[in-house]
Amino acid sequence: MLTIPGERFECEMNMLIECGNRGIKIKEVPAKTGYSDKNKGAHFNSLFNSLKIYATFLRYIASSLSASCIDFFIFWVLTGLNANIAAAMLVSRIAGIIFNFTVNRNIVFKSRKNIYFQALKYLTLAGASGVAAYYIILFIQSYLPLPASKIIAETSLFLVNYYFQRKKIFNR
Questions:
Q1: pTM over 0.70
Q2: What's the CA gap between 67 and 161, in Å, rounded?
Q3: For a FRET experiment, which of 18, 45, 143, 163 has its CA 20 to 30 Å from that of 137?
């Protein structure tokens, strides 16, 4: 536990997450708390401390939105040039994957583990996610315009992808 990063409340949250990742059972023990001088010495700032706790998820959102913009722009251009949906998805997805893997590994999850093994797992997830998105788009496209169908498909896979990247790929 001494190697877990973070300060104060962020460290406590990281310790709880690490225990969950390692399968360490946690037992809650009630403690009596006594404050002197109405706790004027406390330095808890709910907004700042919450941002530190959720920093990884917020970085993931920013990374995902950036990769989605790259992916969507390329997809939009290619389908505008009358490329078929599968080809447009493949090309735009490859660009988004390269960007997203690099940012998620180095900035979001700050992983220093074997890049080749992580890349293989990431590509597997990206492939499965791409196939799922393709079929979701084909289904929704009969009800909504193509750009809206793509946005809905990719958004519906957002949390699933976060879970697998955090737990299975970058092991955070």
A1: no
A2: 13
A3: 163
**HEC readout, 5-41:** CCCHHHHHHHHHHHHHHHCCCCCCCCCCCCCCHHHCC
d(CA 146, CA 112): 38
User: Which DSSP letter does residue 172 get?
Assistant: -
User: 160 by DSSP, 3-state: which?
Assistant: helix
Residue linked to tokens 């990742």: 21
Cβ contact 171:163 at 8 Å:
no
Q: Where are the alpha helices (DSSP H) in 81-169?
A: 85-103, 115-140, 146-156, 158-164
pLDDT in tens, 100-119: 999 999 999 999 899 999 99
What are the structural domain ranges in the chain?
1-24+47-53, 59-169
3-state DSSP assignment of residue 54: coil
Q: How far is CA 27 from the centre of its chain?
A: 29
Whole-number Cα distances in Å, 44 to 50, 51, 55? 10, 12, 17
pLDDT of residue 38: 60
134 or 50: which leads in pLDDT:
134
CB neighbourhood size of 66 (10 A):
14
